[in-house]
Design brief:
The complex is a heterodimer of chains A (319) and B (161).
Chain A (H helix, E strand, L loop, with lengths): L1 E5 L3 E5 L4 H29 L18 H6 L5 H10 L21 H20 L3 H18 L7 H9 L4 H22 L2 H21 L9 H8 L1 H12 L5 H18 L2 E4 L4 E4 L5 E4 L2 E4 L2 H20 L2
Antiparallel strand pairs in A: 1-2, 3-6, 4-5
Chain B lengths: L2 H13 L12 H5 L9 E2 L4 E6 L3 E8 L3 E9 L5 E8 L5 E4 L8 E6 L3 E10 L11 E12 L9 E2 L2
Antiparallel strand pairs in B: 1-9, 2-9, 3-8, 4-7, 4-9, 5-6, 5-8
Classes of the chains: A mainly alpha (319), B mainly beta (161).
Chain lengths: 319, 161
């Protein structure tokens, strides 16, 4: 748009169809609308007692969907395995999924599932201070991550950090935790819940397979047995997560196996202890005691171990 | 690149700038909530980061394993000023801890004898800011850390709740 002066007497305005000009006008108009809308909203807010908490009529949780709420109650493999190191257990390499299995993973669904499975194997290796094997399994996770499009989390800087800290357990575990958090955060952020759930399911199942198979002799007082019993708390959430994709033929096959595991957990008794008590120590900490304890008998443990092993091995043989 | 196209990109960036922070909260917790201290904690995968609005109430459920000591840290963008953090029993919904009584402290440690479902409740408190919405929302990180507790701490406690 420009002003064209003619003869000093009249001013003629010509309209030029330049898109640049159109964008400017549109922008000014839209910005104006936006500012008005913002002011209106703020005015509405200011009509309330704006110095007060605004929670009375607003208890909805818009940040976490029910699916993600269920997901957040499933601890990562390394959290489950932390007890293995405390119990001084021997590392069993034969329990890991063989590295060669990766060659059989041709489609993205199996690659996603095995990203979780190999991640659990990596966490198991790192927890039991198997530094070279950790590096090998990190490489497998990295290959799969590349194939399913989450490679950026496994960049060269991360690989170098692992190599440089190969004999430092704390650093190695810190890095594996970081990888897990990065994957979860990114997939939640972009809304790729299916990939997230699939990776988590693979990791959860492999973790349970490993932890049930490291126990050779049942002892009801064994802390690992208690940790396995505690997974009764996670099975419902895992089923909620995985069942949301039941229309997917690949996933529906796993739901049946998961339901059978749930049925075994359903037979466990829950020992009610005293009511939950929260007490404060002089240094400001809180001690939470009481509640309930899940009891897993030897028979239930054996049935669980068999069912978990069957489901895990069927996944391996079908891929 | 065409000058007009560059201009269009700038204008669109200005127009939609309020939407950008929602996508910048990835790993906010590990980047901002960690405090180096003598006690060595492991990061729980149940930790969470997200984009939160002032006044909204959010709940993050998590499973706390018996025999562990946990540290929960909440961190947030300065403009949000205060975040109320409550820890609730996941079964009874009873409040175990409320940082309002603790001058909105940003962290709390607790030990737990038996595995329990817990809920972390987060509310960004304070007045709605005027003129612009950008002060009414921002990144919040909730970092859950854990370690095994070795001492018998369940002796002669002073009941608070």
């Amino acid at each position: 748009m420009f002003l064209n002066y003619q003869n000093n007497k009249s001013v003629k305005i010509k309209l030029n169809p330049n898109p640049f000009v159109f964008i400017c006008l549109l922008s000014i108009f839209l910005m104006g609308c936006k500012m008005n809308s913002g002011n209106n909203k703020n005015n509405e807010a200011n009509t309330d007692d704006s110095t007060k908490l605004i929670i009375e009529n607003n208890t909805s949780d818009e940040n976490l969907t029910p699916l993600l709420k269920a997901f957040y109650q499933i601890p990562a493999p390394d959290e489950l395995f932390s007890i293995l190191r405390d119990e001084n257990l021997r590392f069993e390499i034969s329990l890991l999924v063989p590295p060669e299995q990766i060659d059989k993973l041709v489609d993205s669904k199996s690659q996603t599932l095995f990203t979780g499975i190999y991640s659990a194997d990596l966490a198991y290796c790192a927890t039991l201070e198997q530094f070279q094997t950790s590096l090998d399994y990190f490489a497998l996770v990295r290959i799969l991550a590349d194939k399913i499009g989450i490679y950026s989390k496994f960049d060269d800087a991360l690989s170098n950090r692992i190599k440089n800290n190969i004999s430092n357990l704390d650093s190695l575990q810190e890095i594996t935790e970081e990888i897990h958090l990065h994957i979860v955060n990114d997939l939640v952020e972009v809304g790729n819940t299916k990939t997230l759930i699939c990776i988590s399911f693979g990791g959860w199942l492999e973790s349970l397979y490993l932890i049930t198979n490291v126990v050779t002799n049942y002892n009801s007082n064994n802390l690992i047995i208690q940790r396995i019993a505690d997974q009764k708390n996670t099975i419902d959430n895992m089923l909620v997560c995985i069942s949301s994709f039941k229309d997917d033929a690949y996933i529906s096959k796993m739901i049946k196996g998961l339901q059978e595991i749930k049925e075994i957990y359903a037979t466990c008794t829950i020992e009610k202890m005293e009511n939950t008590k929260a007490v404060k120590t002089p240094d400001g900490q809180i001690l939470i005691s009481g509640g309930s304890k899940i009891i897993l008998t030897e028979k239930q443990f054996s049935a669980l171990k068999t069912k978990i092993t069957d489901l895990r091995n069927s996944i391996l043989s079908n891929n | 690149m065409n000058k007009n196209l560059i201009f269009l990109e700038i204008i669109l960036a200005i127009l939609f700038s309020n939407a950008l922070p929602a996508q910048n909260c990835v790993l906010y917790n590990t980047k901002n909530c960690r405090v180096k201290e003598k006690e060595k904690y492991r990061i729980s995968g149940q930790s969470h980061s997200g984009f939160y609005k002032k006044g909204r109430l959010s709940e993050i459920p998590f499973l706390a394993y018996g025999g562990n000591k946990y540290k929960i840290t909440v961190c947030f963008e300065k403009k949000l000023r205060f975040v109320q953090l409550k820890l609730k029993d996941g079964e009874t919904n009873k409040i175990i801890y409320d940082n309002e009584e603790d001058n909105y402290s940003t962290h709390k440690t607790f030990t737990i004898s038996n595995t329990k479902k817990l809920i972390i409740q987060i509310i960004i408190v304070g007045p709605q800011e005027t003129n612009t919405n950008k002060y009414n929302s921002g990144c919040v990180g909730i970092l859950i850390e854990y370690k095994k507790f070795t001492e018998n701490v369940f002796i002669k406690p002073n009941s608070t709740k």
